[in-house]
Amino acid sequence: MDHFQEEQTLGKAYDSRLMRRLLKFAKPYWALIITCILLLLVVAAIDLATPYIIKVAIDDHIMGANNAYVVVDDAVDHPALVNIQGYTLLREDRVEDGFAVTKLELVKEDGAQLLKSADGGVTLTLSPEEARELRSYELRSILRLGVILFVLLSVGFVVNYGQVYLLQFTGQRIIFDIRQALFSHVQRLALAFFDKTPVGRLVTRVTNDTENLNEMYTGVLVNLFKDVFMVVGIIIVMFRLDTRLAFASLAMLPVIVVMTAIFRTRARAAYRETRVRLARINANFAETISGMRLVHIFRQERRKYKEFAEINHDHYQASMRELMVYAVFRPAINLVDFLAKILIFWVGGSLLLSRSVEFGVVYAFVSYIEMMFRPINDLTEKFNILQASMASAERIFLIMDEEPAIKDPVNPKPLGEVQGRIEFKNVWFAYVGEEWVLRDVSFTVEPGQTVAFVGATGAGKTTIMNLLTRFYDIQKGQILIDGKDIRELSKEELRRQVGLVMQDVFLFAGTIRENIRLYNPEITPEQIEEVARHVNAHHFIDKLPKKYDEPVTERGSTLSAGQRQLIAFARTLAYDPAILILDEATANIDTETELLIQDALPKLLTGRTSLVVAHRLSTIQDADVIIVLHKGKVREMGNHQELLAQKGLYYNLFLLQYKEDFSQGAGVG
């Protein structure tokens, strides 16, 4: 994916095509996701019930305790009945038609609480004990509602804990599958893909971008159901409580819709600009770190500092613009929330004064408005997560849609026991278009032969090695092993028979033993030590504190180039390949290690077909055949003495190197 394509995807807040592909990864976990949604609905229902229970406590049992009481017939059966001074009393609003006898108002006179009839015929002066008895049912009801509320909140806590745990577990499993699929796909891609794709970009895809998707699955996708359920549930409860207050509460809804639409547009543009600036920071920083030696040697620190400062300042400005968008939206929503509450206080207060609504209803509406605005306030964060997730998903799927350039045949032919005969027949190859690196190259290597390739830089030596291992596919011609076209073989079987030792040895973090074995359990510790002795690596390994279990840092930075090369030889020998490729394997090592390798080479080459690319001609003079390449073509072929006798390209290369060696006092072997 090039930089332009990446920028184009950054502004998308939602893409249904991408979402469908993301949901495919969630499909194996649908049961868990549905369980999470159901648990969220339980939590939402408890949240909805809480203000309503408090409203019942206020209106029915706290404020309602001040209502008038009536003297009722003894035949009336009701749990709220109370006997005061020989009178059976019941709150007026609880009396059914036909049961009321005398209405008594609850009043205060000179600090005493009285129950008086309108005509003054009945007056009861209540002692403190009688006043408590009068309200005993209300107190019991409030306690019962408190217990119910406590139980509901406790259940909500347990359910919410289970939902959060289950949701996070599900999200991590989905991200695990995405990472595995991405990593597996990247391993199947041909080297041509890695030639044009920076390593840092791939690392970002596997780490940061997949983590962005995790936040979408856990923070947006499932919680969206709760938000929708809450808003719909709040609106339904509001209209059931009081239609007038419900319409007053929703009066600010159009304002919210307009504000949200403006926010989405502005946030999308600000997010895109910030991400583009951040990508430039990453690219500049990675380039500077990679070229730090050159920066230091050419004293470019000040120029690179100014260059980075400009890019960093652009990112700072873009971040501040993005911050301004978010900083304005949330307070604006809070302001609308506050205005909605003021409207409820005004309308609700008017209705309270006219006694057409109860205080508990107004309280419930204030609580429900606050609950309704909560998901709207969270919209800023969720929108940002969704935007980042869509951009990350786009980048991830662009890699996963990359078709492997090197594919196995549908029905691969078995290679069988390899003799080691290699034949290049009229091979043409170009890395890009028709910029041919190899032109009509033909040669044959017989089983057990050692063939060396020499030539100037860019002649095509390493390319031949890459083609034999099928890291790249040729455009014309054929490459045969034991008479079988390598394109008709499976890559795994082909590469199992080919051992490769390169100039730049790569060692994995771990131990020396693990780097020789490469985690193959079939290679025993005895075999590891045997091959190490065979290639003269044992002498330095045995001197290390932990010997074969000595830790190896990334790329083997604690070992010398020669030590790394000896480990690479041991690793190759441990896998016992039928065909061996040495690509400039002795180019960057000291003289002492070179002597060890020169001693080990005959042991390594014996019984194998070997292809050797060498910069130092002295290392390949004993090769059975030397092939001289020039500008992608085979110019000369023969052994060392035959090529010298021809006095052609090889002869000139030999003389040139002889002069270099002579001037350095090395002599010529």
How is the secondary structure organized here?
Elements: H1 3-9, H2 16-26, H3 30-62, E1 69-72, E2 82-84, E3 87-91, E4 100-109, E5 112-117, E6 123-126, H4 128-134, H5 136-188, H6 191-196, H7 199-221, H8 223-241, H9 243-249, H10 253-290, H11 292-297, H12 301-353, H13 359-377, H14 379-400, E7 422-430, E8 436-445, E9 450-455, H15 461-468, E10 476-481, E11 484-485, H16 491-496, E12 498-502, E13 510-511, H17 512-517, H18 525-534, H19 538-541, E14 551-552, H20 561-575, E15 579-583, H21 591-605, E16 609-613, E17 625-630, E18 633-638, H22 640-646, H23 649-663
Parallel strand pairs: 9-16, 9-17, 12-15, 15-16
Antiparallel strand pairs: 1-3, 1-4, 2-3, 4-5, 5-6, 7-8, 7-10, 10-11, 13-14, 17-18
Characterization of the model:
The chain is of the alpha+beta class and 669 residues long. The chain has 4 domains: 14-59 and 141-250 and 262-400, ABC transporter transmembrane region fold; 63-137, no CATH class; 420-497 and 609-662, Rossmann fold (3-Layer(aba) Sandwich); 499-576, P-loop containing nucleotide triphosphate hydrolases (Rossmann fold). 58% of the residues lie in helices and 14% in strands. The protein has 23 helices and 18 strands. The strands form 4 sheets. A 6-stranded antiparallel sheet has the order 2-3-1-4-5-6. β10 (476-481) and β11 form a beta hairpin. α5 runs antiparallel to α7 (199-221).
